[in-house]
């Protein structure tokens, strides 16, 4: 299996359980590892034969901008399922982090792996 990756993608979403978090959207940092075969694209040199990472980024940002999640775990599961269902991925590894949530902590987050 080959892996297409997108690292340190920043997206806006509504995430959190505290009143201050529900009052405004937050920026989350997302890293994706998408398990697919790239053999066809390697042979054809045609974007239609692979996962177009520009499309992934654009559609994911649009999806998340209108969504609300209480927990990072739910947000991360949502992204993993979304990738598996929409991009013919066989396996995904998704990392989602909230930035600057606590003094002295750069990021907190969740990493999951899922497959079909």
UniProtKB/TrEMBL annotation:
<dbReference type="InterPro" id="IPR006156">
    <property type="entry name" value="Dihydroneopterin_aldolase"/>
</dbReference>
<dbReference type="InterPro" id="IPR043133">
    <property type="entry name" value="GTP-CH-I_C/QueF"/>
</dbReference>
<dbReference type="GO" id="GO:0005737">
    <property type="term" value="C:cytoplasm"/>
</dbReference>
<keyword id="KW-0289">Folate biosynthesis</keyword>
<dbReference type="GO" id="GO:0016787">
    <property type="term" value="F:hydrolase activity"/>
</dbReference>
<comment type="similarity">
    <text>Belongs to the DHNA family.</text>
</comment>
<feature type="domain" description="Dihydroneopterin aldolase/epimerase">
    <location>
        <begin position="4"/>
        <end position="114"/>
    </location>
</feature>
<protein>
    <recommendedName>
        <fullName>Dihydroneopterin aldolase</fullName>
        <ecNumber>4.1.2.25</ecNumber>
        <ecNumber>5.1.99.8</ecNumber>
    </recommendedName>
</protein>
<dbReference type="Pfam" id="PF02152">
    <property type="entry name" value="FolB"/>
</dbReference>
<dbReference type="GO" id="GO:0004150">
    <property type="term" value="F:dihydroneopterin aldolase activity"/>
</dbReference>
<keyword id="KW-0378">Hydrolase</keyword>
<dbReference type="GO" id="GO:0046656">
    <property type="term" value="P:folic acid biosynthetic process"/>
</dbReference>
<dbReference type="GO" id="GO:0016853">
    <property type="term" value="F:isomerase activity"/>
</dbReference>
<keyword id="KW-0456">Lyase</keyword>
<comment type="pathway">
    <text>Cofactor biosynthesis; tetrahydrofolate biosynthesis; 2-amino-4-hydroxy-6-hydroxymethyl-7,8-dihydropteridine diphosphate from 7,8-dihydroneopterin triphosphate: step 3/4.</text>
</comment>
<dbReference type="InterPro" id="IPR006157">
    <property type="entry name" value="FolB_dom"/>
</dbReference>
<keyword id="KW-0413">Isomerase</keyword>
């Amino acid at each position: 299996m080959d892996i297409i990756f997108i690292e340190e993608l920043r997206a806006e979403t509504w995430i959190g359980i505290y009143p201050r978090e529900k009052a405004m959207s937050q920026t989350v940092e997302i890293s994706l590892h998408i398990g697919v075969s790239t053999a066809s694209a390697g042979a054809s040199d045609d974007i239609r034969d692979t996962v177009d990472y520009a499309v992934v980024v654009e559609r994911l940002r649009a999806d998340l901008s209108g969504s609300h999640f209480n927990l990072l775990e739910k947000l991360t599961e949502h992204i993993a399922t979304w990738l598996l269902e929409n991009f013919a991925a066989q396996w995904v590894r998704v990392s989602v982090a909230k930035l600057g949530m606590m003094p002295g902590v750069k990021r907190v987050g969740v990493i999951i792996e899922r497959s079909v």
